[in-house]
Amino acid sequence: MDFFKRILAEVTPSRKEYLAMGRVAAKILVTVHNVLDELQINAKPEIHGSYSKDTWLSGEGDIDLFILFPLETSLRKLQEQGLFVAEKVAAKLKCRVKRRYASHPYLELYVDKIKVDIVPGYYVKSNSEVKTPVDRTRLHTLYVLRNLRKERRGHVRLLKKFLKSLRIYGAEIRIQGFSGYLTELLIIKYGSFLNTLKAMSEWKPYNIFISLGEAIPQRRFSEPLVFIDPVDPRRNVAAAVSEENLWKVIAAARAFIENPRECFFKVKHVAKEETTTLLRNREAYL
Predict the structure, then answer these.
(1) Which of 17, 32, 70, 162 has its CA 20 to 30 A from that of 268?
(2) What per-residue confidence (pLDDT) applies to 38?
C-alpha cells in the first residue's frame, strides 16, 4: 500500500524535531540534577513515556520526566519535595508552569515551546515495589524497550495515527480510548499494524482476553477489552477503553481491511456507517 509510506513519513519526527527534543531533554535532565544536588535531595531523574521509547508522533513531542525517590520516602515527603524541585527547575529555566493532578500533583512546564511534565514517584525495580500508579511507568518503559523491535516503531506510529483519526486515542476519562502503552503492546503482540487490525476485526467485546504469555488471572475482569499488563498480571492495560470506542475500532478495522484507504488516517474520518451498524447489531457479535 503506497500511501503507508506517505502516512509514515508524516507521523515520523523529522531530524529537526529529534534535535529540538534532544536539546530540551538534556537541558531539563541537567537542571533537575543540579537542583537535586543543591538541595541535597536523594532522588533520581529519569525520562519515560513515548519520547524515551521513540514512539512519539511528529508535531506532538513532549517529555515526561520523573523524579524518583527511594522506597523508604514517605508519600507526603515525596510529593512536597518533588513539587519543590519542579518549581525550582521552572524558575531556573524561566518557563511558565501549571500544576496538574494525576494520582498525585505534578508540574507541567514549557521549555523552548516543548511540554515537559515533571512527575514525582518511587524508584522501583519490580511490580512488587509499586506504591503509586505512576511508579509502573518506569517498568512499562523498560518492558517496551526490551521487547519492541526498532523496525516496529513505525507500526506503533501508524496505529496511534489510526486511533487518533477515530478520536479514541488516549486513556483519559473524557476519551476512554487506547493509551500509548496499549498501542505499543498491541504491536509487540501482533507484530505489525496490519496484523493488529486483522486481530481487532475479529474482536468480540467482553470476550477479548489478550496477554503476552502471562497466565490470565483467576479473577474475571469486567471490562469489554482485557489486555494483561506484562509487568503486573493483576492489571488490565485496556481498562479505560469504553464499549462504544471498542465497537468503533472493530468497525474501522473491518472497513479498512475490506477497502484500505488513506482517509482512515485523517483526523476527521470516522467509519460512522460501519460503527452504527455494529452498535445496532452488537448482540449478534457477542
Answers:
(1) 17
(2) 97
Nearest C-alpha neighbor of 168 from the set 264, 277, 259, 235: 264
Segment-wise mean pLDDT, segments of 10 residues, the chain, 286 residues: 88 97 97 97 97 97 97 96 96 90 86 95 96 95 97 97 95 94 98 97 94 74 94 93 95 93 74 55 49
pTM for the whole thing?
0.91
Cβ atoms of 84 and 40 closer than 8 Å: no
Question: For position 274, what pLDDT does the model report?
Answer: 56
Count Cα atoms within 13 angstroms, Cβ side, for 103: 15
Sign, CA dihedral 174-142-125-99, equals negative
